[in-house]
């Protein structure tokens, strides 16, 4: 091969190296900014993170329906009081436990989605569940919901004594 051919091969490798280096820098800066956002969100408490996601950053839904307003409920040790709702649209539920007689209070939200029969879908629907989210003597929980049946449980994990809570439940769609 002639010397001029080697020169063009060398130039091609230098150009490829420059492109690879610029791409790597671009990925580094994208990673750094994403990591910064994730770190900022990780610094939120559970309640603060939920409020940020559902209340401030992502979802600004127009309809707000109070399903339960400052209702006082009681349940025996190790059990839960359940609220059942039929939800017509996707959105989210906010459960506010404004007071509880125990620090072992939790909120759990579960639901069942079934597609309309007119869809003729082989899928018969699905269920979802938040798991038990501790709220202590007071706290707020946000959880996304889809059309169908939604059940909100407010309970306690006490071994020997029951509990009483004051609860407000708001549905945003």
Relevant terms:
173 residues, Jelly Rolls, alpha+beta, 2 domains, 30% helix, five-stranded antiparallel beta sheet, 2 helices
Sum this structure up briefly.
It is built from two helices and nine strands, in the order ααβββββββββ. The chain is an alpha+beta fold and 173 residues long.
Q: Quick check: average pLDDT?
A: 79
Architecture (CATH level 2) name of the largest domain: Sandwich
> What structural class do helix, strand and pairing data support?
alpha+beta
Helix and strand run:
HHEEEEEEEEE
CATH C-level name of the largest domain? Mainly Beta
Q: Count of DSSP helices?
A: 2
- CA-to-CA gap between the ends? 71 Å
What radius of gyration results from the CA coordinates?
26 Å
Strand content: 35-45%
In CATH, the topology of the largest domain is named Jelly Rolls
Q: How would you describe the shape?
A: elongated
Number of domains: 2
Q: Report the helical percentage.
A: 25-40%
**How can the largest sheet be summarized?**
5 strands, antiparallel
Q: Tell me the total number of β-strands.
A: 9
* Low-confidence runs of at least 5 consecutive residues: none
